[in-house]
Amino acid sequence: MAYELYYWPTIQGRGEFIRLALEAGGADYVDVSRQDDGKAMMTLMETAATPSFAPPFLRLGDRTIGQVAAILAWLGPQLGLSPNGDSDRAWLNQIQLTFADLVAEAHDTHHPVDMMAYYDQQKPEAARRSKAFRKQRIEKFLGWAEQVLSKNAAGPAWLVGDRLTYADLSLFQLVEGLTYAFPTATARVLKSTPHVVAVRDRVAALPLIAAYIDSDRRIPFNQDGVFRRYPELDD
Amino acid sequence: MAYELYYWPTIQGRGEFIRLALEAGGADYVDVSRQDDGKAMMTLMETAATPSFAPPFLRLGDRTIGQVAAILAWLGPQLGLSPNGDSDRAWLNQIQLTFADLVAEAHDTHHPVDMMAYYDQQKPEAARRSKAFRKQRIEKFLGWAEQVLSKNAAGPAWLVGDRLTYADLSLFQLVEGLTYAFPTATARVLKSTPHVVAVRDRVAALPLIAAYIDSDRRIPFNQDGVFRRYPELDD
User: How far is B207 from chain A (nearest CA, A)?
Assistant: First the structure.
């Protein structure tokens, strides 16, 4: 039985954290909206017994689960991307939720005051929010990830224990996304987070991830996703 | 062995979702910062083997877990506030994460462009963000909760299955918080969400919760928490 991923078909967005887990776990899955332009997704948003507030959501058989961190906490054990034990899984979940906070803040740099309006309708506010994000938040979040890696009793190769989990895949995506959206500010921070950079490189070198990134299943970054490159917001 | 909750000692804030679960579950716990004004919290932020990005975090023995939804997903089964089964727990987690998104948006109404600056330094932006929040988001989130209750195969008394879970406690807190911060806008929405109102009332009537709300352990809403009453942001 294949997993069915429902997400916007033209962006990486929040769905990319799920795609990376499915790919790294070698899962049998269908990225449904890329085949039907989102039609089934819009229907299922309404008709699912467990309706999702927003995409992405993942279906397996008669079960549909939404919210990135909830999907990953559910999927991780099935794909071998979670540690054993409730407490270690809680710690992994905590890390993922902290990354989710960073994603939300990255989104709000281009939509600080009205998420239903265009960026062009909130550019001064976006400039101010982005400045605070660049000056304080990127460093605080990636510095925290560096600390987590440094404190890992099993060594700094992975965030939790001594093997890959879904949070490492998400950290890869965060570094890629921040580098796309804020290349100058992110490069400055990455100089002081060598373990984070090493995780990014280690994930990129995983055979299944390297193959995915080379495939047309990986949608390029663009100006409709969470991470957007507006040069006026970087420095 | 008692749970130790670490959170800011003068606000409900995000810690309140944990306090409500501990209280409703009849847990033996200490709200540590209310005894030492946050000193141990600030130390543990740095020294924990699993460091938290921000409060709240909860310690039990040698394990410390942060992030509200991760704490609740870990704590729920221990306190009888989660359903059985990985899939139902994933659904509960999804609901909690959607509520967490609403909390983050409520916070951003008074801090839309710079979370390290005061509200007074971003009032025009706060007015615009609050308008979008009042006009679209409160209704969308509470309408979604109403839909979840309506679709529950076990009936609309609780969000998941036929008994109380931690998400019901959180929904109570959301209604209380939104009503405090945006009384006019929230009252308007609640007219069309009778199941949500009923959950709020049902939680308030739980003996352990009623006793908690009457106690001095429940910190009153105030202008330092997530939910703040600025009359100029409501209508």
Answer: 30
